[in-house]
Amino acid sequence: MTPPIRLIIGLGNPGPEYETTRHNAGFWLADHLADDLKASYTLEKGFSAWVAKARFEGDAVMVAKPTTFMNRSGQAAGALMRFYKLAPEQVLVLHDELDLLPGNAKLKQGGGHAGHNGLRDIQAAFSSPDFWRLRLGIGHPRTLGVAQQVAAFVLSPPRRDELQEIVAAIDRCRAIVPALLRGEYQQATSQLHEANRG
After folding, report:
1. Is 50 exceeded by the pLDDT of residue 86?
2. 153: which of 57, 70, 115, 129 lies 20 to 30 Å off by Cα?
């Protein structure tokens, strides 16, 4: 029996210059989830994160956004996991995904980091890949016909049509979070994957 999600970590880069960039899709979703859970963020310097504490059906749940840059995301994730004595299986990481087109989102547990620096750092901090990931498609410059290197692409804002697709995917992700907080992973997965377009 896999325990329900108790800590949700959105990935992104801090600071206004990164706010609208593709790499911050995890932050965008985290902000919506905090609203959905009627929780507000407070800066917790000891955890190097903004943390929104909520209750869901009587249980404590947290949504966090690291204040470090993406490649140091494990600092906040590791500190929160250890302090609250959570297992990696109780953590959900929200992140942008180059391998999925804008408008697509996928839920999975474990696996590699596919070169994503935020995931790589969290995996190292947890000494385990067994945390859950909610992957928000942003597309790849090659598939989208954009003449940009990947590093520049993820640090640029999405085009308007892509943004509409990403926002639609974020809404579908929000819809499955209650199931994840109840530990209903099978239901959440099929609900999300049925909602994906194409």
Report:
1. yes
2. 129
